[in-house]
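CATEGORY: protein folding

GOAL: derive structure tokens
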Amino acid sequence: MRILHTSDWHLGRSFHRVSMLDAQAAFLDHLVTTARDRDVDAVVVAGDVYDRAVPPLSAVELFDRALHRLADAGVPTVMISGNHDSARRLGVLAGLVERAGIHLRTDPAGCATPVLLKDAHGEVAFYGLPYLEPALVRGEFKVSKAGHETVLGAAMERVRADLAERGAGTRSVVLAHAFVAGGAPSDSERDITVGGVAAVPTGIFDGVDYVALGHLHGAQTLTERVRYAGSPLAYSFSETTHRKTMWLVELGPEGEIEAERIDCPVPRALARIRGTLDELLDDPGLARHEESWVEATLTDPVRPAEPMARLAERFPYTLSLVFDPERGDDDPLSSYAQRLAGRTDQQIAEDFVAHVRGGSGPDEPERGVLRTAFEDVRVDATVREVTP
């Protein structure tokens, strides 16, 4: 069976205030064309179809057209909701569109009810595990601890139990939206950390033939059978070095895996450039970036006059301007930035407690209070976003 694995479309998202709607439409054209030209048996979309719970009408129309074209092409499509989607909104017409071969899996309670597709070698069971917010689904999975590994592990136990009751030759594909250990994040993914722990081990998916992951925006191979498709478009300058692709996966009669990366259309190259304003304007080596979307980091010790306007004369697609003056190691602003770099909200809060106490940091019960407070804020924001 030939499977086209994609994820993280984020329809409706912009890039530094530049609309990406045309680029997203071009990607969906490319997806449908690839599905037809490469005789794809199934398209799988591993979450974050939309960029937010209530997407703009233009994004909904784009999604609607894509589904109609896939249905018209006779290509079965399986998709799950991600942490950016409203699962209830995305799944509202699931029963109806299933008749057209579009299978939406947005309800955690249905994670062990597969979509069954056939090829010349028998059935393939596609299990859709929508994004599982631990605090919201712990009751469904009857787990005592609300953590990503716990709820995802419980969901996979249901999947394996269902698979065990099927014929010995049944092959299996799992769609999941999660942060799996070994994956490299970028700046454009929303944090899903719970209690300081976001990543789950790859072993949690043992027992299935292929795992189509979504959430991280870089295409990645964690194991032969566990892969991220990544986002089809770049949504932050941290993705400057990404090669945006889809996975074309060949699932053999015995569950063998062969995978090929299919490049996605690039609306415009990204570039990160750094130096003083005069250096950036004069360096002939930067000519290749003059038509790119640019993030410029200025290192001038004093902020120059009208830097954006002057940069735009050479780099008309400059979208982001960062000031990072070169400072000595004894500069208090430099040392403060170094202390904050790479630290979590929890760690910064603990440092603050230590600071106001004259060096005495929080004890374990106090750390627990801080963890609970951060988690309550995050879950509350999630609930407000996904509740109609």
Q: What stands out?
A: The chain has a mean pLDDT of 90. The longest strand covers residues 122-129. The longest helix spans residues 364-386.
